[in-house]
Amino acid sequence: MLIGSHVSISKGLLGAAEEAYSYGANTFMVYTGAPQNTVRKPLSDLKIDEGKAFMAEKGISDIVVHAPYIINMASYKDDTYTLAKEFLAKEIKRAAAFGSKYLVLHPGAYTDKTAEYGIERIADGLNEVIGQGMPDIFICLETMAGKGSEIGRSFEELKAIIDRVDKNEYLGVCFDTCHTHDSGYDIINDFDGVINEFDRIIGLDRLKVLHINGSLNKRGAKKDRHANIGADETNPKGVDNIGFDAINYIVHHEKTQGRPFILETPWISKTENLYKQEIALLRGESL
Ligand code: FE
Ligand code: FE
Ligand code: ZN
After folding, report:
1. What is the DSSP string of 94-145?
2. What Å distances lie between residue 101 and 37, 144, 265, CA to CA?
3. What pTM was estimated for this model as a whole?
4. How far is the CA of 234 from the centre of ligand 3 (A)?
5. What is the pLDDT of residues 198-237, one digit of tens each?
6. Fewer CB within 10 A of the end CB, N or C, for the chain?
7. Phi, then psi, of 84 in degrees rounded to 5
8. Residue 139 Cα distances to 100, 159, 265, angstroms
C-alpha cells in the first residue's frame, strides 16, 4: 500500500522526504511553496537530488505535487486567468523536476458566471498549457466538495472538462474522500456504488491519486472541512463523520490499489499531527 501525507517543502525535497519517512510513509505530497501564493524558491535551493537519493534508499515513491489554490482556471478575469495558466505551466515543470508524476489541481471556481462557462474556460486553459508541451506527468483534477462555485463537485463535471481537452491523456483525477462525501456521494455505506459510478462516468484508469480525509460535516454539506481519520469527541479538531471503517474499506478496496493515498488531516496543534498513527492504523499495524 502506498500511503503518506502532506509534508512541508520548507526544508526542500530532502526535508519533505525525511518528514514523510518519520511518519512511516512510503509516499507523500508537497506544495512547491506556500499553497496560498505564487512565491517560489528556485529549484536549485530545494535539495532535489538529495531528496531523490533519500527516497530511493528508503523506498519512497509515487510522490504527488499539489498546485496552489490561487490558480483559478475558471476565472473570467483576464489577469487571474493568465496568471493561472502561466503558474500551472511552471508547476508542471517543478513537479517533473521533483520526479513526481502527479500534479493535483483544483479545477476552478466560476464565481459570478456559470458552471458551463467555467468548464469551457478550464478546458481552454488546459488545452493551451498542455499544447505547450508536457513532461511525463498527469494533471490530476481533484473532486471538490462543492462549496461556493467550485467546479468538480460531480464526476460529470470532471468528465466534461476531460472531454473538452484534446490531449487528455495528460489528465487524471484525484479522489478526495472528504470532498466526495461533502458533495453528496455516499462513500460511507456504498463506496462500491460510488467507485462503480466513477468508473462508468470517468473511467477507473483516470484515478491516479486519493486524498484520504475524514470530514467534520454530514454528507452533502458542501463544506470541505477535513477531520482526522475516525476522530471522536476527544479530538480537539472535531469528530469525523466518515469514520474509520469507511476509510479503511476504501484504502483496502481492490479498485483503489496501486495509487498513492495522501492524508490531509488536521494537525492537532502547531507541533503535533497524527499522520504516523493514521498511517499505521490504515496499514493495520499497531504502533
Ligand atoms: Fe486539494
Ligand atoms: Fe484534497
Ligand atoms: Zn479539502
Report:
1. HHHHTT-SEEEE--EE-TTS-HHHHHHHHHHHHHHHHHT---S-EEEEEP--
2. 22, 21, 23
3. 0.98
4. 22
5. 999 999 999 999 999 999 999 999 999 999 999 999 999 9
6. C
7. -60, -45
8. 11, 14, 23
Q: How far is the CA of 39 from the centre of ligand 1 (A)?
A: 18
Q: How far is residue 164's CA from residue 161's CA, in Å, rounded to a whole number?
A: 5
> Minimum-distance ligand to the CA of 104?
1
Q: Are strands 3-5 and 261-263 parallel, antiparallel or unpaired?
A: parallel
Q: Which ligand is nearest to the CA of 177?
A: 2
Q: What pLDDT score was predicted for residue 54?
A: 98
Q: Is the pLDDT of residue 38 over 90?
A: no
Q: What is the pLDDT of residues 137-156, one digit of tens each?
A: 999 999 999 999 999 999 99
Ligand 3 centroid vs 226 CA: distance in angstroms?
6
Provide the percentage of residues in the chain whose pLDDT is more than 70.
100
Read off the C-alpha cell for 212.
484520504
- The three three-digit cell numbers of residue 44, written as one number: 536549485
Rounded Cα gap, residues 267 and 282, in angstroms: 18
Confirm if 157 and 116 have CB atoms less than 8 A apart.
no
Letter for the amino acid at 250?
Answer: I
Question: For residue 35, which ligand has an atom nearest its CA?
Answer: 1
Residues 11-27 have pLDDT tens digits of: 999 999 999 999 999 99
